[in-house]
Amino acid sequence: MGGGARELAGYLAALGGWVAAVAAAVLPQWRQSSYAGDAIITAVGLHEGLWMSCAAQSTGQVQCRLHDSLLSLDVHIQTSRALMVISLLLGFFGIIVSVVGMKCTKVGEEDPVTKSRIAVAGGVLFILSGLCTLAAVSLYAAQVTYEFFRESTVPINARYEFGSALFVGWGAASLTVLGGSLLCCSCPAKERRGQQYYRQSQPSTAREIPWSGR
User: What is the per-residue pLDDT for 5?
Assistant: First the structure.
């Protein structure tokens, strides 16, 4: 795969991962009611996310409510919120920087070495964005797992398990890190050595005038 095609593939993968991260951050299905156990209650299904909690009735009616207070939320929710916001900001800047640095664009610098460095910077931003998404989703999933398996008087069918937004977040993190890694494969040092070799291999056009010594 050529350098330009590799950069384009990495950019599209990272862009898709960033869009998926936006969807994961907005979706309220970070955790949902568990249907395990003997007495299964299907009248109302509860879903909770970073920003709101929803109740879906068997009739199809869904009621959602935003979290009232920021300070009253659990620590893992506040931390996941902050990590997702940082991830989306890093990904947004990565989109802009990568467009400037890609070989297939005519934006900004025309020097291939400088554009490669900018593309690598965009790839680093995407990798950091994916790692923040991965940390936010994994932290939330760890808390859900802990609350599900810990000793409690709450029946198992009244507890929560993984929601669909967690799997969307894991997929988004994987795509973003993969795309950023492909963008980081743009190595400016190789291009610089190639340009120096090209200049040295060119024949000199200047004519040498012999010195007669007179």
Answer: 82
